[in-house]
Write a structure and sequence with these properties.
alpha/beta, Spore Coat Polysaccharide Biosynthesis Protein SpsA, Chain A, five-stranded mixed beta sheet, 5 helices, about 25% helix
């Protein structure tokens, strides 16, 4: 039976370090950043389905997204990224064997990275974290056996709290794509056109 993997796009925060710009809607390759990420995920057959978690800029983002995209609104987005991840996780609990946690500010990860992580996924006993040059990147691939650990966290807990728990097995998967290290938090972080 094929492993069913979901992707959760985390796009609920205010992106305060972007100096008033709506981070998910910042143009990247002539498209909003959120669309670049969504298109990469939808083109990847390692990803069964995508859930987009919105919050601060929900209405503006929904106007840019195709109507057939599953969105979840986190009205309590101020509490933190973990609360947003929990909302997305609840949307896939019934069917997903694992989830990619995809921050909107890491939109350029190529499909081959998702395939490499999916290939390393069985038997689903460890959280997989892509690395490039030994540096940890995004997105982690989280097996269903850890979903309850994430759901028990406080919404404002660091999202990587489960990874740092001594009872959690984490495997690092070295990939050739430096895009896993993207972290577009400020205007200076954005690639030049």
């Amino acid at each position: 039976m094929k492993t069913k993997l979901a992707a959760i796009i985390l796009a609920a925060g205010a992106g305060e370090r972007m100096q008033g710009r709506k981070k998910p809607l910042i143009p990247l390759y002539d498209k909003p950043m959120i669309m670049v990420l969504l298109e990469h995920l939808r083109a990847c057959d390692a990803v069964e389905d995508v859930v987009v978690v919105l919050g601060c800029h929900a209405a503006a983002c929904q106007a840019e997204l195709p109507r057939n995209v599953e969105t979840v609104i986190n009205r309590e987005w101020r509490k933190g990224k973990t609360g947003s991840f929990q909302r997305g996780l609840r949307a896939v609990l019934d069917w997903a064997d694992g989830v990619f946690a995809c921050p909107v500010d890491c939109p350029r990860v190529p499909c081959r990275v998702y395939h490499e992580l999916a290939a390393a996924f069985p038997p689903g006993d460890a959280i997989l974290v892509p690395t490039h040059g030994g540096v940890h990147g995004h997105p982690p691939l989280i097996p269903a056996r850890f979903f309850s650990n994430y759901l028990r966290l406080a919404p404002d807990a660091p999202l990587d709290s489960v990874q740092h728990d001594p009872n959690t097995t984490v495997r690092y998967v070295e990939v050739s794509s430096p895009e896993v290290l993207d972290d577009f938090n400020t205007p200076a972080d954005l690639p030049s056109a």
